[in-house]
Structures
1.
Amino acid sequence: MFSMFSTALLAQDACKEIYDSLNIVGSLPADYCMSLSVYLSSELTDNNFITSSQNPNLKPRVLQNRNAEPSGAGLLNQSGAVTSVQPIALAGGSFATGGTDDGASTIFALTLNPSIFYTDISNPNETAKSSRLGDITVFFPTNAVEENTSELEYFGIRARLNITGISTGDELLQNVQSIYSRLTIDQNKVALSINKLLNEATDKQACYDQIKNKEESTNSCYSNIEFPVFTQKQKDELESKLREARMKADSKYFGLDLRFDSGDPTLGSKPGAAGTRLFGGLARGRTLEDKKEQTMKYHFRIGVDYFDQEDYQSISTDTVMNMPVMDTTMVLGRTNFSLDSAFGLEFSKSVENQTVSFSTGLELRLARDIPDDMDEVFQTNYMMLRSSLSVPFTSTNKISLNLGVPVFGEISPVFSISANWSLLLPD
Amino acid sequence: MPYKGNVSKNSTITAELSCSSSNSGSALLFITSSDGNGDSKAVAPGGADSVSITPTESGILNVIVDFGSNIDSGVLTVKENGSNIPGSTENVQGDLRWSYSVN
């Protein structure tokens, strides 16, 4: 017992001598060998693991949600079977072309996250929260300008507010902080291993020198340090953890989906289609399964659509010429409320931080008291099966193929190709 | 040198960062200890903030600063129970980590 005690005291004396030679100012350690071990671990880890992880790409771009995109439910640029309310991080746009019963059309959408005007976007802390809160999209068909008046015949605005945005941002930062905590714990394991080697070494100065100089001989103290899984594997794991932190933050959403449309979305091909449309709904999505970068997610939306139809001239058929002619009779516009709902599943696979996704779902809209043959004009009383395939061509740009087939109701099938892009946050 | 000295177990360690007003963006200031505890703050250009922790076990305490860019700078001060730790006040530039032994 006395022998063990005196050995420990001798070890402390030897460690103190080395520690003092370092001219480190500050309070004196109670355990010189452990403090010396921490010193050595901090020198070693600079080269072995901390340098790579000390700055683990904790920049806003790493925290950016890259799956959000400008998209309008029921429009040609709708990518995904059911649109989500996850906002775009900074700004972006989409360009879609496709065909319906009304003919071919092209639509542009531009999306802006208003937080860029009041948030320091170089600050990961603020960006992680604000970039996930909400955005505003303006969309219009390219052929929506009237030829004679230059007035915009149709346009729409969509606002998305993700209520879970703020809390997921906090969670994300907490995850990143836990990575730093883990690094400190791992560094402590190295220090404990060095401490053990120093205490067991008969020549403590020689052991210290071997570690300090990284001598890699068989009997060297340096060669016997038990490193946790550092090196390249550790770096890869850290990057994976950061990716995981971002995916976790974006794994769920709950929020408001608001939309205002003005004009005639059929651009004159259907009498009575012009009017003002307001939509207000709740949207919810959550990752159900997350295995080896393959995820399955559900999207759900429920809301109310209000349509205020403009007065219009009816069209009758000339029985002699067998062609439609403009009637002089003015038909008074009506107002109508529809119940809107959609449910879909999205399957995605991440490859090198880029996500390929396929989604499919059903969209339902129901209303009462719609005049005969006017369901299509009011865009209601239908169920549609929608499917979408999105393939990225850069980390924030993707192309989507979108198909919508009516299950019942007077709704046109739709096929479109859309290209989506979004700006990157600072790196 | 990343190793900055020794601090006592159960003492309150505070890291204060004052950022240069010409910095490109906010800096993140972290303090973590090997007992698993930590604290973090974002410090805007021209601003100052602090993080603190009370390590309850012997081991390591790290102060980490993640600047927006490598030319961003500031003044970092680490205190133990409110008193400056000798050698732990420096003008700093770029990302850094300071390690302390706790015992």
2.
Amino acid sequence: MNTKSLVSIDDLNTDEMVSILDLAEEFEKQPSQALLEGKVIATLFFEPSTRTRLSFESAISRLGGKIVGFTDASSSSVTKGETLNDTILTVNNYCDLIVMRHPIEGSARLASEIADVPVVNAGDGANQHPTQTLLDLYSIRKTQGRLDKLNIFLVGDLKYGRTVHSLLMAMSRWNTTFNFISPEELRMPVEYKLYLDKLGLKYYEHSDFTDIINEADIIYMTRVQKERFSDSMEYEKVKNVYVLRNHMLRETKENMRILHPLPRVNEIHKDVDVNSKSYYFQQALNGVYTRQAIITRLLNLK
Amino acid sequence: MKEPKQLSVSAIENGTVIDHIPASSLFKVIQILGLDKISNQITFGTNLESKKLGRKAIIKLAGIFFEDDDINRIALVAPEAKLNIIRGYEVVEKSVVKVPDQIIGIAKCVNPKCITNFESVTTRFKVISKKNVALKCHYCEKITDQEHMVIL
């Protein structure tokens, strides 16, 4: 990698992305490797994100590394008014790599400029969450056997959904066709559509969740959150429209897989879980292999 | 031959004249170039009539010559500014400001959740559009457009 930190998915060129996915594949075959023995990894979670933290800590533990850190800002010196600058300069002394989750956008980029050790962005507000994007790519490649010429359906909150924006940007490198299914208020922002236009990639927008999904190779579901609506009546109207149920999958492609960044609330009905096309829990497991790959790559251990 | 224009401010022997500054941006230009902190002789004129800008401002700086990188910093607030380099009371060179590829400092990121609005960090932007100036924040990656631009 050119950069020693992973802050934004755009920091990686296509070869570097593919190379991380290949390395993640190696970790899937052999998850326990003592590559981080004697190394200390700091996990700084300025806001709680149990799922992401456990995934990182599982990845680090399987590599034999030790973990220091905090799980939310109230248990750190931030509550005493310490700046991010000072926290990073201090923690920098104690570890070989920093994994950081922070509610403020751009905080990870700033941390990577302050720290001498590599910084992995585990989510900076609504901005970037590159390890999520890489595990999504890994899951897509693993289930479809390739990344190019796929038809990807993004469903739910496409306006504020950080994960779908990053996934769109990443998948746009591989001749992807996109279908956007969302309520009117939560449509894909125009800047992303302009970007696809510029690349000459096809995309289609739908406000109804219909049998159009029969064309999908991947259905990527996201949560429609109540707090995104200025008018709560509007939320009540749409909250049950974008729910995936088992019977809707009958005519979908055999090899189609359903992804979701988790946690889900009700947007994927529980009856889908038994369907072999559901993949979101395996997707979470893939996150461990992908994070193993990212950490070892940033530390030049693989 | 056009009729010689009546100058509202006196000529300088050597230095730079920055013309076609929108009158409303004069003090921002002064601030960006740090003109309030130097001891050279400087003449300002503002609210001068201009066909193009309505009301324009002009700055005459005795004994000062700018590097391109320095002067281009004013492009955000005075995109149509013109420079006249004066030597021996003669205009020896004319140029226009160009919007640079990168803006460091000067502008504020429009995103209230950006780290640059929380910690003391110098803002940094990549210029993604020069015509209708649009800046992409190096930190939060959000776009600040001309309409929402606030000069620090």
